[in-house]
């Protein structure tokens, strides 16, 4: 019952803040809910100075939710599937070269650049973390969050090509980022001496290729089942089974569930809606997943803001977080620039497009969930704190200004 009351409170707050935003502020929903969640968290912290028991009660209630498990184990499957339904396969195919290179090579470059930067910056503040944990931080913070990205870009007037690159890359680099994180995490736990290059490659390929194949199987099975009937309620239930059953199966098989959901969503959103659904089913199906996406996003961003209450912040951690947020922007640009140069499509995209993709590459709940999922160690608290600072900086600073940046670059 306590968990139900907590979710009821989160939903009530999300609904109230969404109303205020639509009525008065008109910010992108993700930004407004994150911002108001942060303000609410600050209110709880300030109230704690007058009544310590109040903060402890709120903290105790928030700890009822395992944020990492809640997002990575439940929400992520729905959000990635819902987001990938809107990706046009012809547009994706036209930009496949850039999307694949950004999502794979780009994420690896960013992981290494950010990891080494943190390794050399921390000693300046009297902190020391082993390189493997710095690379683990690089892996969890490098992928752009498709949930945050798609929420922001709905109001930005981008060309179809740039929008497809940003959204497509964020959907795939999310899955690749989780795979890289899982691989480095296993190395960190088992020790570098127990992992050779072949072991790392095998782990990576098993997760990534396995996830893509699983997505194709899940998507095609769902398509065949939906095509064989004409009953929109059952067809929506089948899509829910694809997400929940498919994601659970991927977890059991130790392959990438996020990549599977992206592939299954793209297949369903293109072949499924065009060839397997009636007009009535297509209408209900689209509205169902649009509302589901909006409601789950509202809970997620509200929760991210409020989670600040349960994180221990040191003044140095905040400063390191701001520095790393700036480092991350430069790392993001170079992780796009070098693959574009290497695979010879830089001229096709243009430097302005790369700058828009850099500033529009937001970090969100996935980075926080991955940081919270780290095994207990003396380094976990600082990594979690820095991650929170970067995510808040990314969504509030970059998210608020992305429209102006796009207009300036296109002007």
Automatic annotation (TrEMBL):
InterPro entries linked: Cation/H_exchanger_CPA1, Cation/H_exchanger_TM
Main localization, broad class: membrane
Pfam family, one: Na_H_Exchanger
This protein's UniProt keywords: Antiport, Cell membrane, Ion transport, Membrane, Sodium, Sodium transport, Transmembrane, Transmembrane helix, Transport
Start and end residues of each Cation/H+ exchanger transmembrane domain: 13-407
Subcellular compartments: Cell membrane
Membrane topology, as annotated: Multi-pass membrane protein
Family classification: Belongs to the monovalent cation:proton antiporter 1 (CPA1) transporter (TC 2.A.36) family.
Name of protein: Sodium:proton antiporter
Organism: Chryseobacterium salviniae
Lineage: Bacteria, Pseudomonadati, Bacteroidota, Flavobacteriia, Flavobacteriales
């Amino acid at each position: 019952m306590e968990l139900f009351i907590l979710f009821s409170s989160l939903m009530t707050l999300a609904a109230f803040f969404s109303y205020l935003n639509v009525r008065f502020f008109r910010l992108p929903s993700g930004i407004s809910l994150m911002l108001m969640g942060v303000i609410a968290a600050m209110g709880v912290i300030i109230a704690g100075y007058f009544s310590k028991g109040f903060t402890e009660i709120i903290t105790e209630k928030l700890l009822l939710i395992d944020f990492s498990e809640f997002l990575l184990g439940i929400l992520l499957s729905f959000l990635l599937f819902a987001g990938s339904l809107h990706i046009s396969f012809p547009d994706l195919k036209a930009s496949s070269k850039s999307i694949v290179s950004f999502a794979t090579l780009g994420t690896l470059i960013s992981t290494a650049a950010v990891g080494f930067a943190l390794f050399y910056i921390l000693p300046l503040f009297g902190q020391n973390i082993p390189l493997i944990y710095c690379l683990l931080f690089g892996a969890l913070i490098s992928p752009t969050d498709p949930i945050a990205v798609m929420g922001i870009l709905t109001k930005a007037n981008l060309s179809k090509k740039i929008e497809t690159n940003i959204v497509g890359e964020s959907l795939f680099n999310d899955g690749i980022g989780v795979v890289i994180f899982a691989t480095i995490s296993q190395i960190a736990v088992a020790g570098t001496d127990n992992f050779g290059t072949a072991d790392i490659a095998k782990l990576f390929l098993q997760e990534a290729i396995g996830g893509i194949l699983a997505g194709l199987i899940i998507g095609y099975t769902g398509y065949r089942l939906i095509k064989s009937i004409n009953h929109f309620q059952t067809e929506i239930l089948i899509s829910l089974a694809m997400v929940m059953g498919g994601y659970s199966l991927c977890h059991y098989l130790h392959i990438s569930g996020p990549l599977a959901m992206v592939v299954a969503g793209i297949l369903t959103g293109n072949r499924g809606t065009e060839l397997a659904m009636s007009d009535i089913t297509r209408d209900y199906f689209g509205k169902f997943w649009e509302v589901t996406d909006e409601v789950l996003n509202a809970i997620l961003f509200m929760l991210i803001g409020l989670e600040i209450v349960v994180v221990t912040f040191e003044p140095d951690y905040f400063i390191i977080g701001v520095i790393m947020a700036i480092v991350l922007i430069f790392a993001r640009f170079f992780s796009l620039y070098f693959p574009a140069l290497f695979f010879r499509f830089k001229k096709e995209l243009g430097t302005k497009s790369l700058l828009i993709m850099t500033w529009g590459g937001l970090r969100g709940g996935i980075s926080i969930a991955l940081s919270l999922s780290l095994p207990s160690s003396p380094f976990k608290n600082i990594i979690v704190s820095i991650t929170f600072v970067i995510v808040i900086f990314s969504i509030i600073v970059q998210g608020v200004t992305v429209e102006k940046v796009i207009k300036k670059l296109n002007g």
